[in-house]
Amino acid sequence: MMSKHEDHLEEAASPSKRELLKLSLAAGAVAVTGGPNHADAADPPIVPPSPPVTPWLEEIPAYTYRPYTPVPLLDPPPQETANLGAGEMGRNPLQKFAELYARQPDLYELHLQETMHVFHPDYPAQPIWGFGGTYPGPTFYARYGKPAIVRLFNELPANHVGFGTPETTMHLHNLHTPSESDGFPGDYWSQTKFGPTVFAPGRYKDHFYPNVYAGYEKSRETNPNAIGDPREALGTLWYHDHTLDFTGPNVVKGMAGFYLLFDELDSGNENDPSNAALRLPSGDYDVPLIFQDLRFGADKLVTFDQLSPEGVIGDQIVVNGKIKPYLNVARRRYRFRLLNGGPTRWYEFYLVQNNGVRLFTYVANDGNLLPFPLLNQTKVNLGVAERADIIVDFSAYPIGTVLYLVNRLQQPDTRGPKDAKAPGDQVLKFIVDRNAPDASRVLTPATPMRELPPIDLSEVVATRTWDFHRSNGAWVVNGQFFNVKKVRANPKKGTAEIWTLRNIDDGWSHPIHIHFEEGRILKKNGAAPPPHERGRKDVYPLFKNSTIELFIRFRDFTGKYPMHCHNLVHEDHAMMIRFDIEP
What we know:
The protein is mainly beta and about 575 residues long. The chain has helices spanning about 5-10, 15-30, 95-100, 215-220, 245-250, 570, and strands spanning about 105-115, 125-130, 140-145, 150-155, 170-175, 205-210, 235-240, 255-260, 285-295, 300-305, 315-320, 320-325, 325-330, 335-340, 345-355, 355-360, 360-365, 370-375, 380, 385-395, 400-410, 420-435, 460-470, 475, 485-490, 495-505, 510-515, 520-525, 535, 540, 545-555, 560-565, 575-580. Helix 1 packs antiparallel against helix 2 (about 15-30). The chain is about 10% helix and about 35% strand. The chain is built from six helices and 33 strands. The chain has three domains: about 5-45 and about 450-580, Sandwich (Immunoglobulin-like), CATH 2.60.40; about 65-210 and about 235-260, Cupredoxins -  blue copper proteins (Immunoglobulin-like, Sandwich); about 285-435, Cupredoxins -  blue copper proteins (Immunoglobulin-like, Sandwich), CATH 2.60.40.
C-alpha cells in the first residue's frame, strides 16, 4: 500500500519524477523514523567541502542590476485565453485582462536556456539554466499602473544530464498576481510535458503582471482610474522557478532574478522633483544582491542532492552569480536590496571595516518600505526568500577604503541557524574608488516612508492554525504532505483571516512564505514583533518551538495559491499547502 506522499506523486508527477521521488522517499525512510522531533533524524551526511578559491577576483556583473529592455511587440499578440494554436501552453484565462491590458503594458520576451557560466575564475565554465540565458536572470524595472506581459519560452534541453528537471513554472514573488500567472507548482510545463493543474504543453507562456496595488477592486468603487491602495506597494521582488518537487535544484541551476517595482513614492529617481518622492539612491547606485548557498564537487561543478529530505548546506556563498566578488563604490549613498535566494542557508549580515562593525539604515523588509527608516543598524537577518533594503553611506570613507559584507551566522547543517559569531565569512568586498554626485535624500528617524494600511479585525471571518513539522522522512503541514489537487483552505475574495503558524519541532527552522498578499504579524511567540518585522511581510521566519500569528487579506483575484516553507529542500519534500481564493 502506498503512503500519502506516494499517492501525491502518483497523481501529480510525470513518470520520471515519480520514480525519482520514490527513491527519495526510500532514502528518507532510512534517515528518519518515528515522529516529528529532530532527535529521531539521523545525523546529516558528511560531504567534502567545496574546493577553495582566491577571493576578490571578479566584480559584480553590471547586468544583474541594470534594467531589462522591453520589446516593441509580441507576435502573436497576447490574449486572454491560451493561444494553443501558436504554441502557448495550456493555462487558464488571464483575469481582468481586457480592462488592464488597455493600459498598454510593457512587453518582454524571456528565453529560458541552458548556457555556460563561470562562478569564479578558479572554477571551470559549467552549464546553468538561466532566464534570459544568464545567472541570475535579468532585472526587470516595472511601475505600478503599468502592466507587464512576460512571454517566457522554455528552451531547456529535454534530455539533460544531472539534477533538475527541464519543466518550469515561473513565480514572481510576491506580486499581487492572478493565480494563472503566479507560478503554482502544479502549473509546470515544457514543450512535451505539462503539470496536473494545467492542460497542455507548449513553447511559451504569457505571464500577465497587472502591477496594481492590493485593494484594486475596492479603490475603483469611488475612483474608476484607481489602481488599489498605495500603502500596499512592494518594491523589491524576485522571480524564480517553482516546479513541483524540483524548485530547489532548478533554482540552484540558475532560475532566479529580480523584479523591481516603483511608484510615485519610491520612484527610482533620486532627482525626482516631486515632493512625494523619497529620492532613494537610484540607477547604478541601486544594487540588488541575491545570495545563494551552493556546494561544489571535487570537479568544481555545482552539486545538489535532490533526493535527501534534509539536503546539504552550501558552503560557497554566491553573490549575483559570483563567488567572493567585489564591487567598486563611489563616496556617496547606495541602496542595496539584499535577497536570500536559498536554497537552505540563513544569513546575518554585517558591514565590517578593519574588524569594526559599521552602521547603515534599514528601509524595507520583504520588499515593503517601512513606515519610518531604522537608522544606525548593525545587522540584517534573512531566512530563505526574505529581503531587506538598506542604505549605506560611503561618503564618510576616503578613497581606497575597503569594507566587507560579512555573514556571521553559524549554520553547520540544514536544520537552521545557530548563534552569530565574529569574525564570520566575508561574502562581498566593497572598494571605495571614486567621488560621485549624490542627489539622494538624507533620511532621518522622522522621515515618513510608506504608511501602513490599518488592520481591521472586524474583517476577519476565519482563523486557521498551521503546524509545520516532520513525518515519515519528509515534511508536513498539519500532518499532511502536499497534494496539488487538494484544497486545504478556501478563503473568500474580499475577506480577511488570522493565520497562526506553529513550528512544533525542536530542531528545525522554517521560513514560511504565503503567496499573493502581504500579511502583518500580530504576535510572535506571544509578543510584539521586532521593529523591522512590524511592517508588511510575505516570509515569516519560524524558528524551533515558535508561533507567529498574522493578519492577512485576500483581494481582487481568485484561484489557487500555495503556502510553503521556503527552505527549498523542505518545499520540494512536501511542506506546502494549496489554498483557493473563492469568488
